[in-house]
Amino acid sequence: MIFQRPLFKIICWLLLSIWVTPAYSIAYCALRDPVTKIYALFPEATSYKSIVHMIDAETQDQVSLKAQFSLHKDELGQHTLYIAMKDKEPLGIIHSRSEAGLWGLIEIVWGFDFDMNVVDFTFQRCRETSCPLLMTSSFRSLIKGKSSSELRAMLDDDKIVYPPNVAGNKDAEALATTLIRSAIKTALVTEISWRDDLDAFSNMHIQ
Amino acid sequence: MMDSFAVCNSGEGLYVKNASKFNQCLLFLALLSLSLPTFATDNDTWLSSIENFRYTADVSVRPQVELKQNDYSHIESLGIDTHKVFTSKSGGDIGTLIIQGYFTKLNDIKMHPPFYSGPEDVKFICRICNFNLVVMDRGKLNLRLGHAEIPFGLEYNQDTNGTLRQYSNPRDLGNKLDWGLAANGKFSGGGYELSLSRGVGIDWRNDGQSYIVAGRIERNNGYSSVIGLSGFYGHLRSSTASTEFIKRSRIGLDAHIQWRNLSFLAEVSVGEDNDSDRVTALLETDIHSKNEKWLSYIQLKNTSTKPVGASWDTIRQSSLGVRFTPDNSWTLSGQWTHDLAVMDSMSKKSMLELQARFRF
After folding, report:
1. Which residues, given as ranges, of chain A have pLDDT below 50?
2. Is residue B3 part of a domain?
């Protein structure tokens, strides 16, 4: 019977293998929304709205053009943007991104306003000993309110004046730079991949 | 097209009648793949046009050999993993639907879980199939309805469905999934889940006499360490002839601590199966590479039972495993599980398992 033949199986596997889309290596039941972080970044929020969108090779190319670094291929695929809501009023944008750290991936949850200025950030996952140093208000105030172009200027001109608890600590300075790059990348990816969704969302709520 | 699947509902879940039907399922999925454009992007397929919807085909092959008797067997699985978030037009999220349907084929698996009918069985399993409905603001209360993990122990935060690496729930509770209803929520620094389920496990059976009540509450330090307290009470149908039902109770404590690229996980539970005392424990240390593509782990597992009027008897195992994730599609794993101590009536085993998993 044809269904029992090894050649049949091989042909089926080959047919399957050409249907390759950017996937997510872990099962979807393991996906977790950063629920408590959303409400930590926007304390007035009562709920949030998810917008799932594809980050593809085109987004990767556009980020490369606008920043001096690019997205890793593992960052492609479907990702979720969250809109923090107070009843029906949108308060801001939450986007979680992963960055390579000294001891593994660091998951940073970013809060932005609708002009894509940094509202604040927090860590969802961080193994670095310097993470608590970067969570202090002195570093957070350094990047709060800044747009991606202002953050890029900080990196390009090497104008980062680290707060006293970070300056001189090489690990903390490296993590601070990683955070600034992550903020730039997250803002650019959001602007490129979610702009249509955000415009539609904003228009709906302005009306 | 569905006729070619020739699945039959026996009342204890969906069974595919024989192995050739598994291959027909494979052909169906292959033909489906041809109906969709190659290298699809978000705007290319009708599936991708569904708002807030993720879907992935998931194929795995798992050869395994029992080293002491040189007994070779293998398991293949083929499924679809889907995830859909429902949102209101003017407000926030309404709920999340997860459907994971897998055809699994056993090939000479003598020590198979009880929900398979034999060592060569082919079966459709709905792994995680539930809808989690938002009930209260700020994530305080959601209601989950369907087939979900029993909220107990380390398993709650670690996804092990379809993987070689497992925690204590299958051997301690008898199953890690059940059909039912659960209340769950998050609060600053923690979360909870409380479930009432049918006590039937993988299959939907019309059995009004079995049930499970389980719950877990956890505290975390924000982003690196978690401690959880779990409880379980089940009135479950027994697979042995000596008794029709088992009254199973457990209290469990679990913890997960991270330090640099190491993780330390532990869980212990104590309780009773009818009048037999039982203690189950697991310790794990794992280490990953800087980019987290490589993970290796060692587990020590202990199960001790004490029937009425008898002394304690213990099963002790060690597992050494490695997982390599070269990209977002492939996961390659290996695990060696060795019996350190077994009960008097059993013989020691040493099992080497390999798994290649491809998601696309």
Report:
1. 18, 20, 22
2. no
What distance in Å separates the CA atoms of residue A78 and residue A96, rounded to the nearest whole number? 12
Domain for residue B7, yes or no? no
* A136 contact B CB<8A: no
Q: Which residues pair with A82 in a beta bridge?
A: A50, A94
What does the block give as tokens for A15?
């047919």
What's the CATH number where B222 sits? 2.40.160.10
> Tokens for B115?
């929900």
CA distances from B255 to B90, B269, B329, B334, B350 (A): 40, 12, 30, 25, 28
Per the structure, how many domains does chain B have? Answer: 1
Single out the residue of B189, B166, B188 nearest to residue B297, CA to CA.
B166
Q: Which of A80, A87, A89 is nearest to A186 (CA)?
A: A80
Instruction: Please report the pLDDT score of residue A1 as a whole number.
Output: 56
Q: Which residues on chain A are in Cβ contact (under 8 Å) with B223? A: 107, 123-126, 131
B326 reaches A (C-beta below 8 A): no
Query: Is the pLDDT reported for residue B217 higher than 50?
Result: yes
Tokens encoding A22? 């950017």
Is B196 among the domain residues?
A: yes
Which range of residues forms the domain containing residue B316? 12-359
B270 belongs to a structural domain: yes
Q: What pLDDT is stored for residue B224 in this prediction? A: 74
> What interface predicted TM-score (ipTM) does this complex get?
0.86
